[in-house]
Design brief:
Elements lengths: L1 E5 L2 H14 L4 E4 L9 E6 L15 E4 L17 E3 L4 H19 L2 H9 L15 E5 L3 H11 L4 E6 L8 E5 L4 H5 L4 E4 L13 H6 L4 E5 L8 H9 L3 E6 L19 E3 L9 H16 L15
Parallel strand pairs: 1-2, 1-3, 3-4, 4-5, 6-7, 6-9, 7-8, 9-10, 10-11, 11-12
The chain binds NADP nicotinamide-adenine-dinucleotide phosphate.
The site of NADP nicotinamide-adenine-dinucleotide phosphate (NAP) has 29 residues, from helix 2 and helix 4.
């Protein structure tokens, strides 16, 4: 029985070291050194090379090396193969850090002060307490809930919107499409932490921006496909939106001629909000793999129909 790992060499080395020590019974193979294809029962990959999965007669589980699975071509994954996404402390902590950094930068006007400094201006902006601002999170899954929990410690008013109903202490929650505009109407800072699906593609668009209070800011850490870029620029230029912090774009990398690069009220980072950390991800994956070997249900299985 073997596991095929597909990624860059430094990451592969870290994972291989962990498996050699913690699971010597599992043959850890690194792409493209597959060995006998019939031995491979597990694949860990962000994106498997085209045609590979169908050529593995005994493949049981495809582990995505990231939390989102919108990049997975489910039609290329044989029907009996389970797809598992990556949920691990390193990804969660990274997202909590990035969301906190972004919310505090907006709340304390840090991006305005950077611009003031650049122009040599000694200017002050009224400081509001955190309790005077509402932060809203779209998508109350693993990451959305972790972000809200940490933001609560600063005293922000918190809101959350989700497909199915959620009860989270200290958070005013809203469920379903019909509540979206009511949710948005109270959000000074909006964070998108939805998965990218046919329902959520383009959700950060004109209608949504106009449903937010005038001057609200948006942080997109979901996927670039959630955002209508033209609508964002229009809303920023019209003053309907204050600022946007974007960790994800469509496409990635963002083309050099995109107006987002130079927009004075857009802050961009190159999809680095959170990343799978081998030290915490490899043990988590092994634990899940052992569950599978014992015949127990896997954790973090993706629902192919829903796409997340
Ligand atoms: P998750 O645990 O699967 O949670 C997703 C949540 O979104 C669920 O609570 C789900 O509600 C809700 N949802 C799905 N479709 C919806 C819809 N149409 N309307 C309202 N709510 C909807 O996912 P996660 O681990 O929190 O990750 C969320 C996303 O973050 C990932 O899919 C990925 O795109 C993004 N991400 C980005 C980075 C980065 O570095 N920028 C890193 C990691 C992840 P139900 O449970 O009711 O269906």
């Amino acid at each position: 029985m073997s596991l095929l790992y597909i990624s860059d060499a430094p990451r592969a080395a870290a994972w291989a070291r962990f498996f050699a020590e913690a699971a010597p019974d599992i043959a850890f193979r690194v792409w493209p050194e597959t060995g006998d294809l019939a031995d491979i029962e597990y694949v860990v990959a962000w994106q498997a090379p085209s045609g590979l999965l169908a050529s593995l007669p005994n493949l049981k589980v495809l582990f995505s090396s990231g939390a989102g699975v919108d990049h997975v071509d489910f039609s290329a994954v044989p029907s009996g193969v389970q797809v598992v996404r990556m949920v691990e402390p390193g990804i969660i902590n990274g997202m909590v850090e990035y969301a906190t950094l972004s919310v505090l930068a907006l709340h304390r006007d840090l991006l305005d002060y950077l611009a003031f400094q650049a122009s040599g201006a000694w200017r002050t902006i009224e400081v509001l307490p955190a309790s005077a601002r509402t932060v809203g999170v779209m998508g109350l899954g693993v990451l959305g809930q972790a972000v809200l929990e940490r933001l609560g410690a600063f005293g922000f008013r918190l809101r959350g919107w989700n497909r199915s109903a959620r009860r989270i202490e200290g958070v005013e929650t809203f469920a379903g499409d019909e509540t979206l505009h009511r949710f948005l109407a109270g959000c000074d800072i909006l964070i998108c932490l939805l998965p990218l699906t046919s329902q959520t593609r383009g959700i950060l668009g004109r209608g949504l921006f106009h449903a937010l209070p005038r001057g609200a800011s948006v942080i997109n850490v979901g996927r670039g496909g959630h955002l209508d870029q033209a609508a964002l620029i229009e809303a920023l230029d019209a003053g309907q939106l204050g600022r946007a912090i974007l960790d994800v774009t469509d496409p990635e990398p963002l083309p050099a001629d995109s107006p987002l690069w130079r927009h004075p009220r857009v802050t961009l980072t190159p999809h680095i909000a959170s990343m799978t950390q081998p030290e915490t991800a490899a043990p988590r994956l092994l634990e899940n793999l052992r569950r599978h070997q014992r015949g127990e249900p896997l954790r973090d299985v993706v629902d192919r129909q829903r796409g997340y």
